[in-house]
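Figure 2 data, in text form.
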Amino acid sequence: MKLSTRQEQLLKRTFLDYRQTMDFIENPLIMKSAKGLYYYDVDGKKYFDAIGGIFVASLGHGHPRIIEALRKQSEIMTFAPPLHGISDIALEFVEKLGSVAPGNLKYVKGFSGGSESVESALKFARQYFKQTSQSDKYKFISRYMGYHGSSFGAMSASGTGPRKTKFEPQMSGFLKVPNPNMLRDKFSNWDECNRFAARMFEETIVCEDPDTVAGIIVEPIGNTGGIITPTQEYYKILREICDKYNVLLIFDEIITGYGKTGNMFAAQTYDVTPDIICSGKGLSSGVIPLGAMIANEDLSKAFLGKPGSSVEFAHGNTYAQNPLACAVGIAVISEISEKQLDKKAQKIGKYLYSKLEGLKKFGVVREIRGKGILLGVELVKDTKPNEPFDELGKALKKTALKNGLIMRIDPSWFAVAPALIAEESDIDELYELIEKSFKDALDMVKG
């Protein structure tokens, strides 16, 4: 793609997410339109969207039911006065989302995205303990390589060094423990590794003093570490630890939520109910900014007092539970539920997994992991010492785009999470593009 002088000047007036502008100008990509499973750039080139943009377009691009919900609501009301009242469509959104969340997670607040959802959960937890006579409980424990958002609280909970060190010092009260993948080579099997990794949360709580720890926040499947997929037992241990020490268990389901893992939420896939779920991305299928914090209804009682008691949750955002966004969220949830697209993700995911297994013939794949349609492939130079193959990942970034393929590559692993509308024939097309890009990348590395 060749940039015009105007386009190059405009690129220098903005910034791209985690990209050096001058690098991007050398190999630019400017999209023009999107439909279904595909993007089209300004030159008309077609790209298979294997990652929903960035785990967002859960129902593909331009889904007619969602667009129609947006259009209808736009003719009724596009904004409600947040300091004076609430829209009827927002209440419907609260009811709809609460009806598909696990357990008693029915206390819902819509926001503009995932970072806002995480930020609200952290503040909710701290205020909850202050209002239940446990004001010393303010610390949060999360995992290294976890990513929870770009706002300061969410960033402080994140364990991705390069993304946060530029803005340090981080907020106080945030602690990290290793994720299971960091420890796997020290144990004889994956189950034992996960038990040890889970118990590190308990050791940290004890060492910090349980009376000071408010919550554990984790992604059920960790994206930035390479689709880290702990065992079922791992999360059952975390649930037991939180119950034992009166600590809130918070699942960051911004990526895993809304069907990708084979259930509406990964909490249901793992059969463990947290106290709070933070969500975003796929909740709107990319049509409009939308996220949500979903909490156990029992926790909400701490925020219900007599008129004038000032115990309400001291938090708000201008576009929280925006009517247009709520209408879109309802449409997305309804489409997934009515057509059982989460269950379909189990079937399509197994097929996709079996196809990705074909990459092992190249001798540079250590592991394929994930659940449902959210899958990751780890790249290594040799499958015995398992040294990361960053050079291959960097080459794959180039060959994938050249071949018309959008994936998450970072660089010793890559991830795919096609929209829930994908069929087996689409998976066949996707795998052909992945394999071709893989071969091209290997040729590039080997010279």
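Caption note: The mean pLDDT is 96.
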